[in-house]
């Protein structure tokens, strides 16, 4: 433990500050494919009983019409967010009418590329903008990639906690505003995340195998498990490997994480700089919009990253404008695989560890980074997702070789005082217990989720698709065996109906044509649009 981490933990352990640790917010966004009873991608529209995908804040769709996204409110205790996620799942299953939620990050056996449905949001201008954005994603990355699912974990610390740290930080000029100090610390958290996020891939990666047709005949280095399944014997997360999003345009984006303005400049350039291959395609084909623009990124959120600095946007703002105006409010962790052993895709033990991990990253020292370190970080991450369970796997830190197991144990040791303090604030031992569970995975690679998944697939006849369908159906039965109380169901029904009414109101009252709407969006003169 560094002196800085120790000082900050001592500072926050003071009685007048300890409660601040319980005042940050946590939220989960969980993606999951709808499939039919045979494990085929659902071709049905988004179920109206779940409300409007455009306006329901709890249940929407991601890139594909068949890719549901469940969103919890941000809450101080992640256990409460998980309880809400559980309720969303139980409500959804009551309305799916024979369909199932595919509980894995890598998709089921997919239909031909052009038969994968792109998410639809109705006929309003804003709904069409969301749809056209996804047409652009299909054009740029392929529809198959739109069927990958994951867990996004939103995390913030109390603004008052940041102020306590600012006042106790001897190295900081106190003329630095609270907002700018908070932003600097979140960016420092992100630098540490990029250094150490390989550990999450080892501990929680759960996608070592994939259906053969996911590759669509592309060259690969996977091994054959069976006629319908490819895998990597020591892999942890094919979802986060270079089998996922591959795009030469994004390869040219190199955000700098040494300060917020540099990060903003990188993304601002990407959303405004034309990319010749996209210019050759244009924004329309046969009079139909196929992408919002021909720039490297259509919007900031198209940039694929394992973590993002975020800020809730106001009317008339783009994400980078909100960050520039008011700084970083929270971070979104995007690299977590679906946990196929939990019907919600994530469990409380993993969430408690994420809280320990992210608090550690926020409180630990974080030196500025360089292009060389960035390359080292990416190499460590990629080695872990492809070979994380390989005996004796070596990673690199500041140019020196270090074993994955030894480095992981060092990091867990450094996190232990953080877990202790979080348990002291909350009561109980859940954070320390979560840390101990991860130590067991480092001691025994066969206990990791990726190893367990491979064992289950082999026991199911070496078919990833057959195993995942059977597992998803069992978990569906478990959820449906616990119907929601009538009052809770009524609340969800009311939320769904209100969202349908809201969509109809938008479609009824909009003015102008879609081309003008897109032009206004490009000029950032529209209201709050999350697409």
From TrEMBL:
GO annotation, cellular component aspect: cytosol
Segments forming domain Glutamate--cysteine ligase: 9-381
Gene3D superfamilies: 3.30.590.20
Biased composition (Basic and acidic residues): 425-434
GO annotation, biological process: glutathione biosynthetic process
Catalytic activity from the UniProt record: L-cysteine + L-glutamate + ATP = gamma-L-glutamyl-L-cysteine + ADP + phosphate + H(+)
Record EC number: 6.3.2.2
Region listing for Disordered, in residue ranges: 425-448
Keywords for this protein: ATP-binding, Glutathione biosynthesis, Ligase, Nucleotide-binding
Broad EC category: ligase
Annotated pathway: Sulfur metabolism; glutathione biosynthesis; glutathione from L-cysteine and L-glutamate: step 1/2
HAMAP family: Glu_cys_ligase
Sequence similarity: Belongs to the glutamate--cysteine ligase type 1 family. Type 1 subfamily.
Protein name per the record: Glutamate--cysteine ligase
């Amino acid at each position: 433990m560094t002196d800085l981490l120790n000082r900050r933990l001592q500072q926050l352990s003071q009685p007048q500050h300890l409660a601040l640790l319980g005042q940050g917010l946590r939220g989960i966004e969980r993606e999951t494919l709808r499939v039919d009873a045979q494990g085929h991608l659902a071709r049905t529209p988004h179920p109206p009983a779940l409300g409007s995908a455009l306006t329901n804040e709890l249940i929407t769709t991601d890139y594909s019409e068949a890719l549901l996204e469940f969103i919890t409110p941000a809450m101080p205790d992640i256990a409460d967010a998980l309880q809400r996620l559980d309720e969303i799942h139980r409500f959804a299953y009551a309305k799916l009418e024979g369909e199932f939620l595919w509980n894995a990050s890598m998709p089921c056996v997919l239909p031909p590329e052009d038969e994968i449905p792109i998410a639809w949001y109705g006929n309003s201008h804003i709904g069409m903008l969301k749809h056209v954005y996804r047409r652009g994603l299909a054009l740029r990355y392929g529809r198959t990639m739109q069927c990958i699912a994951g867990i996004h974990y939103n995390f913030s610390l109390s603004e008052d906690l940041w102020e306590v740290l600012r006042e106790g930080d001897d190295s900081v000029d106190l003329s630095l505003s609270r907002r700018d100090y908070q932003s600097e610390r979140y960016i420092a958290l992100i630098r540490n995340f990029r250094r150490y996020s390989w550990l999450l891939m080892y501990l929680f990666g759960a996608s070592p195998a994939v259906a053969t047709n996911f590759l669509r005949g592309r060259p690969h280095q996977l091994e054959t498990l069976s006629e319908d399944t490819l895998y990597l014997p020591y892999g942890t997360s094919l979802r986060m490997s270079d089998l996922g999003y591959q795009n030469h345009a994004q390869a040219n984006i190199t955000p700098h994480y040494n300060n917020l303005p540099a990060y903003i400049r990188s993304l601002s350039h990407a959303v405004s700089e034309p990319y010749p291959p996209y210019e050759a395609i244009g924004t329309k084909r046969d009079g139909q919009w196929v992408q919002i623009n021909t720039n490297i990124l259509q919007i900031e959120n198209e940039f694929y990253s394992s973590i993002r600095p975020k800020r809730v946007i106001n009317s008339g703002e783009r994400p980078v404008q909100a960050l520039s105006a008011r700084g970083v409010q929270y971070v979104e962790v995007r690299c977590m695989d679906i946990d196929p052993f939990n019907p919600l895709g994530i469990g409380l033990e993993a969430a408690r560890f994420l809280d320990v991990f992210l608090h550690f990253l926020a409180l630990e020292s974080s030196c500025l980074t360089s292009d060389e370190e960035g390359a080292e970080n990416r190499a460590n991450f990629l080695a872990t997702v492809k070979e994380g369970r390989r005996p004796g796997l070596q990673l690199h830190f500041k140019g020196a070789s270090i074993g994955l197991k030894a480095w992981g144990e060092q990091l867990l040791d450094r996190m232990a005082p953080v877990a202790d303090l979080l348990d002291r604030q909350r009561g109980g031992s859940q954070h320390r217990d979560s840390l101990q569970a991860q130590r067991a995975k480092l001691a025994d690679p066969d206990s990791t989720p990726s190893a367990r998944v491979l064992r289950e697939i082999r026991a199911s006849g070496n078919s990833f698709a057959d195993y995942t369908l059977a597992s998803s159906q069992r978990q569906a039965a478990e959820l449906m065996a616990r119907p929601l109380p009538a009052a809770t169901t009524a609340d969800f029904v009311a939320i769904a109906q209100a969202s349908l009414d809201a969509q109809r109101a938008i479609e009824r009252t909009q003015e102008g044509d879609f081309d003008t709407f897109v032009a206004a969006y490009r000029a950032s003169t529209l209201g709050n649009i999350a697409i």
